[in-house]
Amino acid sequence: MKKVIIVGAGIAGLTAGVYALQSGFDTTIYESHTIPGGACTSWRRKGYLFEGGLHWLTGSSPNTPLNKLWREVGALDDDTVIHNRDPFFALEYKGHTVYLYRDIDKLRQHFLEISPEDKTEIIRLCRDINKFTKISMPISDIKGVKVKERAAMPLSMLFSMLPALTRMSFYANQTAGEFSMRFKNPILRLLLQQVAGSENNAIAAIFTLATFASGDGGYPEGGSLDMAGRMAKRIENLGGTVQYGKKVDKVSVLNGIANGVIIDGEYIEADAVIVTRDTLAAVDTLFDDPIREPWAQKMREKTKPMLNTFICLGVKADLSDLPGSLYFIPEEPIFCGGVQLPSIGLNNYTGYAGYAPEGCTAMTSIIAGDSYNYWKACKANGTYESEKQKLAESFIGILEKKYPQTAGKIAVWDVATPLTYERYLGSYKGSWMSIIGKGDKMTTYPSKPESIQNVYFAGQRLSGPGGLPAAAETGRKAVQYLCRDTNTVFQGNI
Question: What is the number of structural domains in the chain?
């Protein structure tokens, strides 16, 4: 039995671990953190659970090919409760509120009531959303691999995708912000900018809207912690091991062949190494000589990292009357990373069991933007903690003004910056995903380098913009390459 070491117990690493074990490999995962999940993570503070990773899950619906993968790796099971929040979020602007409904007919009618002047664009948008609901992320097998069960997409599904494919270039050649300007009504513009970020090309927005409309994109109860925990448990049940608090410093390479890893100066032998740490960071830091292959150079040059700052609040008040997700324009400006925020988003977890003490509410806010250098400078000059507190207090002040029932009721706050994620993930600049901008192609990078044998890569950076599906799919693909190289039958079983 060949010994495989996996670097990192994020979703890519856990996925690779399950498939490697099922395919007969002796598998150990080394994780620098004390818990599994990587970027799919949550943390507790004074009885409150703050969701720091998963906000909706593509493949939560049983009607999707990805659902089978999630079930194979243990991320979902028969007991997993899926919340399909509807409306998905609300946006308030100058006394008006617009809702993002999952039902296309309901969404169309709602938009028309708000903005009859945008009738033509609304009808066209809803028609396109319906087309894109027919697109599902395919799960396929690499060429030449032996498999126990072939993954194939029915021809009927492929034909159903054709109407959406004809509209791809329209959305790909403009940002979501540019697309929103086709609408006259300012509140619709703001909503469409918030769906997937105004910097991303509009493909991200239309796919997100279609995901919700198709009945997918639900939130598994327990969120990131439970999802990663289920996967780690499946690893253990299959006879694998996840060793926590073990940071891999280097992949050991001799004569162009990987033969193990170095942890705290100790050499640990292996027949193959699957690297699931952020590929953008790994190609420069995990090898004695940085990987200089054309694809790695392209990744360095083309990747636009998506960075976030998280504000987390535990509120001693029942806020179940507020939407699960809400965006609004603050009366007073708030700054993060030296940049004024045009709007504020709130995620309200009142409706989920175990996120807060009885009668209380866990809330988070995601602030997008590259604030890495700002927080790095704060760290250097000793103001890091005070600046985090200043941001939290400013945010709390805005919240209390908008929702007086929260005044004096903040039990705990926490701020996670890109430096936080850099520390725990080892990702480039603490980024999660990648921005796919106007006209950018959804680049896919190889799972294995040409210059080093017995090394395989997996992780969301290999398939932009990334996300949990990309992490899982690349984890599966890495093991298929391993199986092909070792003439092993790839197996995946629920």
Answer: 3
